[in-house]
Amino acid sequence: MTIKKAENGWLVDIQPGGRGQKRIRKTLPTKSEALQFEAWAKTQVAQNEKWVKPKKNLTKLSELIELWQSHHGIQLRHTRTYSTLLRVCEALGNPIAEQLKSEHFAAYRSKRLADGVSRNTINREHAYLRAVFNELIRLGFWTSENPLMRLRQFKVAERELSYLDNEEIRTLLASLSARKEKDALLITKLCLATAARWNEAESLRISQLHSGMVHFTQTKTDKNRSIPIDEALSDEIRDFYKTSGRDVSGRIFKSSVGSFRMAVKESGIELLPGQLTHVLRHTFASHFMMNGGNILALQKVLGHSTLQTTMIYAHLSPEHLQEARHLNPLTRLGANLCTASPDIPL
Is 220 a catalytic residue? Predict the structure, then answer.
């Protein structure tokens, strides 16, 4: 890299920022002008960042995940997010983060889909990794664009929700009542009465039952919920706690999901995959709406952060879309249309 004589003048061929930086080739009429241009170019490197080629960021994706974990992930109660991120990172080949593109993750999720992994699971992985970049951008550790920002998640069809009808509830409670241990029976009643998740009810402490309410803490959404409870059920739980004498720390029930599973099987109740204990929560919500409950009240009972999540139960309301019965064109034109002359098109 130098200044040398050329056929039509003096050729300046320099890299003023050093090796690996921007290269400049320019021909000038005289050697003096060439030297002046060289000196000017060197000053630009110090004064104008556009003249300096930015250094490559060789940070690996795994390093970003560790950075996210130490500054944000460690605060999360659910540890599966971190382990999921590490597994996805390994499956992607732990690339240099700056070289990760949306098409790389698109190829990864296509393979996952072909392997039989559900769209919900893949969307969750997508959301976790996208959130890593978003959080690091907020913290100032990542200055480039989020590589997954423009990649849409898979559309997932609403899955069918199963719930127990009145006869199935009676049969299930009868089966649970016949069992020696009453933990599963009372947990089931508590779930049906408050829409609690099984683990929320199972881990309940006696201190959380007071003032005519059950006060759920450490929930899935990390938000406390207080749900009114029938006095008879409250007394039944209190009496059980006093007589059981199993846990001096205040925990009322022992782990009983196995007993619940056996009772469901004995009752002959057919449930959709993955909805064993969660059917109780669906049952509360479904009966709440069918009996004329308010969708906004249901949202608060269930602890959903958005109404959209609760709306899956809206169709069970007796008032849901009832206007369709009265405002359709057939009804509006009158019942006599059904027996009208064949000349009248329907």
Answer: yes
Catalytic residue among 31, 72, 238, 278: 278
> Any catalytic annotation for residue 304?
yes
Which is catalytic among the residues 126, 281, 282, 287? 281
d(CA 291, CA 285): 10
Which H or E run includes 3?
A: strand 2-6
The CATH number of the structural domain formed by 166-316 is 1.10.443.10
User: From the candidates 197, 225, 282, 287, which is the catalytic residue?
Assistant: 197
180 annotated active-site: no
In this structure, are residues 54 and 21 in contact, taking their beta carbons and an 8 Å threshold?
A: no
Residue pair 95/62 in contact (Cβ under 8 Å)? The answer is no
Task: Tell me whether residue 278 is one of the annotated catalytic residues.
Answer: yes
Q: Pick the catalytic residue from 4, 220, 246, 300.
A: 220
CA dist list (Å): 316 to 161, 194, 278, 296? 11, 18, 18, 14
Alpha-helical segments (H) within the chain: 31-47, 61-71, 80-91, 102-114, 119-139, 166-177, 183-194, 198-202, 231-244, 257-267, 278-290, 295-302, 307-310, 323-327, 329-333
pLDDT digits (tens, 9 = 90+) for 240-281: 999 887 766 789 999 999 999 999 999 999 988 888 999 999
Among 2-11, 47-56, 245-254, 290-299, which stretch is predicted with the lowest mean pLDDT?
Answer: 47-56
Q: Which of 60, 104, 215, 304 is catalytic?
A: 304
Torsion over CA: 200, 205, 208, 210 (sign): positive
Q: Is 197 a catalytic residue?
A: yes
pLDDT-derived band at 346, boundaries 50, 70, 90: very low
Write phi, then psi, for 73 (nearest 5 degrees): -60, -30
From the list 310, 293, 311, the residue with the least C-alpha distance to 302 is 310
- Both tokens assigned to 233: 């059920």
Segment 118-141, tens digit of pLDDT: 999 999 999 999 999 999 999 999
Confidence of residue 186 (pLDDT cuts 50, 70, 90): very high
Domain parsing of the chain, residue ranges: 2-51, 61-139, 166-316
